[in-house]
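Homework help board

Subject: predicted structure for assignment chain

Our instructor gave us this sequence and asked us to write out the predicted structure in token form, then describe one feature. I got the tokens but I'm not sure how to describe them. Can anyone check?
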Amino acid sequence: MKKILQYIRNHGAWAFAFMIAMASPILGPLAALSPLYPLAFAAGTAVVLLTRNLRISLPMAFLVLACAASIILANPLPIFQPWVRLCYSLLVFIVLSPLLSSPTLEEFRIRLYEWVMRLSVFIGVASFFCYFAGINYMTTFYKASPGTAGLFGGLTVQSMLLGPMAGVGFIHLLYRTLKEMMTYGTLSLPRLFMMLACLCSVLLSASRGAFLATAAASGYLFFMFLKDKPHQLLKTGVCLLLVSGAAYPLMGHFASGMISKQEANEKSGGTFSSREILWNDRKREFLDSPVYGVGFASQRIVSYAVSLRTGVIEPGTSYGAIFAMTGLLGGLPFMYILLTNILKRPFPRRYGAPVSPAQATLVFFSLHMVTEGYAFAAGASLGAVFWCSLGAAAAYRHQIHTHPLEIP
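My token output:
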């Protein structure tokens, strides 16, 4: 226990505590601690505002102003409580995003990102073992129905959380594996096993969006690390194809839920038939009000009547939601912020790594947000992980480390 506490102190005790608050809405065993989630962001905002020498990100500030302007100009329905949700989102932006920054805050965001990555790996690996132990936490201990908890959520409260969290864990482990191979020429077998466990958890969750985002982010990492070695890149691609073909019978067992879901969707009319109604709604909203949108955290076209009774929003896509809710005023700065943090080289060339680990995570989210609408959902834990990754990506570019890639 003493060694564990020392490890936590050495790698950011406050960041660890904040990670626990972020994990409370994700992990079933921590569900009782979920009130800590908003309290942590409220307290974190107070600390940030008291920090000296703050820098303001103009693109992020413009995004916040665009969100406020969309509410004023569009006058959305009160049931959606847009001002309350904007204030809640502002807490998340202040703590996690590059909206306000300083050397101290950037170090905290990197530490927090590292802890969130450890959490993602833990979720992926532990849920893999839970599958063989017959433990689906929410259905086993809370008797939740599959309609509420999803097909298999492992230790998480919902299978649609397990998929992206395990996918992020896989991408982080792949980043460390490629970095180790390119720097030292070594390969960690325990890490390879953890990668396999995380990938199996993605498949078991039956989240097609998480699986596709994991595959795309993996391809991005291989390309970025090997783009200057085309022959090695080609050999790696061939090996991956061969390994995938050989492992297909085994992986088919773990992917049975995903395959069944895909077959059901194709019978319903298309690969993403469950999302197409929502995507069309967001498209129509954007076309109705392309400049300032229909209002932050609001909807004008509601396909599900329950939203008008509860105010709960199901946008179906983050990009569609951002452009529909805030129009071009909010959508363009958001895309600028996302793309610049993905594309800019974070380290001097002498460090060797072409991207930071947070950039790899952002590539994952940039694909996953096509099918899930959490970017502006302050209460959504995946939204917090996304903004945490974006804040860390910006911090990596600004921080000057002797060994910036040494992530324990």
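Reply (TA_rk): Your tokens look well-formed. For the description, you could write something like this. Residues 81 and 311 are 8 Å apart (CA to CA). That's the kind of observation they're looking for.
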